[in-house]
Write a structure and sequence with these properties.
Blueprint (H helix, E strand, L loop, with lengths): L1 H6 L9 E6 L7 H9 L6 E4 L10 E5 L2 E2 L3 H4 L1 H9 L4 E4 L3 H10 L5 E4 L10 E6 L26 E4 L4 E8 L5 E5 L15 E6 L8 H11 L3 E5 H4 L9 E10 L1 H14 L4
Parallel strand pairs: 1-6, 1-7, 2-5, 2-6, 7-8, 10-11, 10-12, 12-13
Antiparallel strand pairs: 3-4, 3-5, 9-13
Helix pairs in contact: 2-4
Length: 272
Amino acid sequence: MGLRRFFAKEKDFGIPIVSVGNIVVGGTGKTPFLIELLARYPKAFVISRGYGRQSSGYLLVSQDGKILVDVDKSADEPMLIAQLAKECSVIVSEDRKFAIKKAQEMGAKVIFLDDGFNQVGIKKFNILLKSENSSNTLPMPAGPYREFSFFERCSDIVAIEGIDFARSVDFENLGKKMVLVTAISNPERLDRFLPKGIVGKYYFRDHSYFDEDNLKEILAREGADRLLVTQKDLVKMVDFKLPLAIIKLKLEIKEYIFDAVDNYIKGESGER
């Protein structure tokens, strides 16, 4: 990664490109952060690698809010973005440069890269998300960093959770006895938000798909009346006939970040 950063030449695609990413392994709130940004740019295009999908290559997940594929083809996070950013278009592709060109062919005026910090060779505005308690700054396997920590300087904004943005949680359809079932990274980060009535917790590998019969067995085993799931999990359970309670995560982002993104997009678009 260090060699790539030193030797890569940035390609200017002539369009505003905003990346939301991180430099550590695990979840830092990239998807909800991106969704909050997209609320201000309703016709934007989003490009994601689509990690965990059961497909490959370029795929148009949604166009102008119309969802075109199933979640197994898109992966969970791009599908969640497509569902919540209701007027945007979402693309998954391992080749981000190819996807950018395809988005331009479809008339994109602004593009957001999901988890794009390590996508060198693309001229873009980098927002890097960090946890407040990032004490170990060593790269893997000695620490949680994907690359050397000093590459944070390659970002335009370092947004720290608890300082520059904060999470808030709402719930839908809560029950009296619930089992938490989730396939997100670092699921323990949900603990401080959990409501009363949790009788069990089941953690699946990040991006895992669920089996309906297995979830029914978990409900019966724990004597619960609901499964408690995140919105990211929910997109993989849409056809399940199960009693579900939903954790709805929202981020409160400092206004200066919105202003910085807006100024970048206006500047790259030639607006005054």
